[in-house]
Structures are given as C-alpha cells and as structure tokens.
Amino acid sequence: MESFWQKLPKPFFASAPMKDVTDAAFRALVARRGAPNVTWAEFVSADGLYHTRELQRLPDAENPLMRDLAFDPSLERPIVAQLFSSRPDMIAYATKLVAELDFDGVDLNMGCPDRSVEKQGAGAALMKDPGLAVELIKAAKEASPLPVSVKTRIGYNKESLEEWLPPLLEAEPVAITLHLRTRKDLSLVPAKWELMNKAVAIRDRVNPSVLLIGNGDVASVEEGKQLALETGADGIMIGRGMFGNPWLFSANANYGLTMSVDEKLAALVELAHDFEKLSPPKHFDLLKKHVKAFVTGFPGAADLRAKLMESQSAADLERVLAEAKR
Ligand SMILES: Cc1cc2nc3c(=O)[nH]c(=O)nc-3n(C[C@H](O)[C@H](O)[C@H](O)COP(=O)(O)O)c2cc1C
Fold this sequence. Notes:
The protein is α/β, with parallel strands linked by helices. It has helices at 24-34, 46-55, 64-67, 88-100, 115-118, 130-143, 161-171, 196-206, 221-231, 261-276, 288-294, 301-308, 314-325, and strands at 12-15, 38-45, 79-84, 105-110, 148-153, 175-179, 211-215, 235-238. The protein has 2 domains: 9-251, Aldolase class I (TIM Barrel), CATH 3.20.20.70; 260-325.
C-alpha cells in the first residue's frame, strides 16, 4: 500500500530515536528549526504497554510509556513509533495502539544492545533469531495498515549481512535502517559505512522494493548526501548530530555550527519550557544532557554550564542565564 515512504525525496533524512533525548519536547524544537523528512519517536516496550494498560489498568495520562508516544501532529509528521518486544502478540497489540494514536508508521527495534532489552530476547538479541524477527514483522504487518520498518545493526558479534538481511528483506518491511556497527561494537568504533554498498547490493538482489537507510556518525546533511551518493542508501538517519544542534536538518547544512551563542541559549530555554510540560513529568535532570550539548564551545561555557547544572526548573535555568548576561 502507498504510504508516506513512497513520497520521500532521495536521499531523505530521518531523525534517529534516542531514548530520553528525542522526546516530544526535543523533537518539537528540531521541527521548529528545520524538520527532517521522517521523525522517529523514542522506543517503547510493547510488553510494557500491554502490562500497564491492560493488566495494571494505569490511566494513559499517568503512564510514562504513553507519554513517550505523545507527539505534536501539527509539527512532526510523518512520525514513526518504535517498539521493542520478542513476542508477536505484544507487537500486534502495540502496533494497533500506535495506529489508533495516529502515527504514520511503526518501527521494530532489532538493534538495541541494552541488557534489559536483550534479556527479553528483544532488540539486538533478535539478530540471533532471524525466524522470530520475521514473525514479529509479520505480526506488525497484520495488526494494522501502518507501514512497518525495522531498525537494526550489521550483525551481532561480527558483520553478518549475508545471513541477517535476506530473511528481513523477504518479510518485506517498507524500510530497514542499518546502524553500521555490530552489537559487539556498541558505539565504540567508527560506523562502517564501507559496508553500506554491500547491504544495498543484497537488497537489490533479494527485494529491491525495500528502502535502506544508513545510520551512524553522520554529522550533517551535506555529509549524509555524499554518503548516500557513494553507497546507494535511500535515506540517512542522524542521531547524536542533533545534540545541541536542532538546526541540523534545516536548509542550510552547517547552520547549527554558525549559530550565535544567544540563539543556542534561546533554543535551550525553549526546550526546557516544553520539557516541563511533558506529562507525566520527567525528572528535570534528564534535561541536563541538553545543557551540556548546547552550552559548549564558547568563552565562559564551562562556568555557565556548571551553574546551569544546578537548576531544577526552566525558570531556574532562565534566571541563571539572565544573571550571566548582566
Ligand atoms: C542516548 C541514546 C539513546 C538511543 N535510543 C535509541 C532508541 O530508543 N532506539 C533505537 O533504535 N536506537 C537508539 N539509539 C541509537 C541511535 O538511534 C543511533 O542508531 C545511534 O546513535 C547511531 O547514530 P548516530 O551516530 O547518528 O547517533 C540511541 C542512541 C543514543 C546515543
């Protein structure tokens, strides 16, 4: 079925899911400064959604997992929800839910190295069980009309694209994002972009209808365009490049790098206020990684950062900034 995926430019740019970073507040900031072509929400446990809603009967307004699925439809479309689980019935349940919440697509996480995720047989652990990975894709496809995509890595302990990609391609998700590292690599070695050509060749051979998105260490749209040209990737996903740089996807590729200190601090204040509006509330300390990312690279940044780290609210943060200006 036709979906937003077929209407994207080539190459297209996606913002990566990053738990406790790309929440609704940060994504809104990025959208206002220059939206990517596709936005990913943070990952959510499908089993957790079932448990909290159906067994615990926790009201949605009090459920942190439902907060993680909140988005602003006027800013963020097309937006993809990301789920993790090793149970097809849970993936089906959560896929129906995100369809009701009016997401534009659903993505299955098959790359997360987090122990708590892998212990459930989900995330990166699925690379060891391609049969189950295929069942999960099928369950998601059958559960709703939403287009289903997969985000994964190039292998578990070693690169194994020839074994891992074909079964996924045959299950025909609309797109596959490849973080160009193995599970074992974590994020400790540079992303292996030289393997993207190999992945594209396998895709062309096994199922040319599936879009391939490359991911890992891309710092700018300009660099992403070059990598897509060299490798044949249909799209590029960028994660950490957005830290402190919500201008990343805007028309001017290096905009964020040339932003004035005032503009960066104004973006941080805007973010802090939106962050406080998240419901149920997140602990203000989770905002501090953004403080580190925005308040850097200018004279006096270290001192200012130390003072801002003490703040416990957006108002505190604004007060420290106002005092620093005097
Ligand atoms: C703080 C943090 C949280 C992340 N959370 C997720 C997640 O929820 N789901 C996911 O698929 N990947 C997650 N990732 C991985 C990123 O989406 C991405 O694959 C990785 O950071 C490499 O891309 P980059 O070099 O552009 O950041 C996370 C990465 C970071 C740094």
